[in-house]
Amino acid sequence: MPTTESDKQVLLCSNCFVDEGLRIDAFKHGLEQDGNCPNCNSSNGRKLTKDHVEGLAWRFFVGGTTFRTEYGAAPVIQFNHHHYGKSDISPSPWLKNDIKLIEDSARIGFFHYGPRLWMVGEVEPLKDLLDPTKRSQIIRRVLTEYPVETLAKGSTFYRLRVDPRHPDNPDEYDSPPIALAGKGRLDSVRFPVMYGSQDIDICIHECRASVDDDIYVATLKLQRDMRLLNLTHVLKEDVTEFESLDIAIHMLFLARSHSYDISRAIALAAKDAGFDGLIYPSFFSLVRTGGHPFETAYGLSLRRYHPEAEQYAQAFTIPNFALFGRPLQELSVRVHCINRLVLTHVGYTGYFGPVTY
């Protein structure tokens, strides 16, 4: 819808709110504009138009109540214009007046959201992956429906190590020793995997590095073309979210360590099928890009139904590399250089949410 003059009108300011989380968020995203607030008459609060108020409502009440299940995620609260005057949430006492301000200024109402069940893991290919008796047939689909991508000779990527014994020794940046294999997302006992990325920040997240650590990053170069299965690709499917292999794999790589048995089985099958490795979505993709898990519009996945679905999905996905075996020892990868990495600044960006609803 086109922006109207009324949409540009200042309705509230950050000083209107009692709740500290709402006040901070409103100040962060509001307009630095002269004049008094039409609601509270404050002169130094950040000003909020209708769009600002709706954004504040989404971050605090939708983003701030989103919960993760074993696979998937969904918000507890949603809002729309149809529920104006009919809100049914039960907030903390200090939020009641703030909610009324938001509702009346943006003409919206809040309600408890009943998500479509695919959002919390009711996806048939995912359920089959969880069933050891059906897992192999879905993995066969993964190997055939996801595209092959050739990573060209000379391509570079990064591998980060925390507190290596001999940081100047290139061998320190190969896959972990066989004795240590089987602890990561894709490696198994007697099946080592080299993990890397073209995004150094993601390497830091993946290694859980902190400012107290001695951190070293190797720049690695491929010595031959590598044939990789690309699991970051967005599949085009003529099915609902409930039958979507794309949604199933997307959920798998955003899940925590309870999902590792499945992803390891996919890696082993890819190795047996002749692949050199995988391109897979980083678990930290959403934190790195600022994305929200499993966004929907009217209950439909934006990953599938966004007008530019592929670009939308790629904008919130950071690809990692998993190369099978010990690529440095096998001379398919070489160390171009090694640098010490010193963390000088750490920052967190997020939004607040209610405690009770």
TrEMBL record:
RES domain ranges (all copies):
172-337
A Pfam short name? RES
Taxonomically, the superkingdom here is Bacteria
UniProt-recorded name of the protein: RES family NAD+ phosphorylase
Organism, as annotated: Roseateles aquae
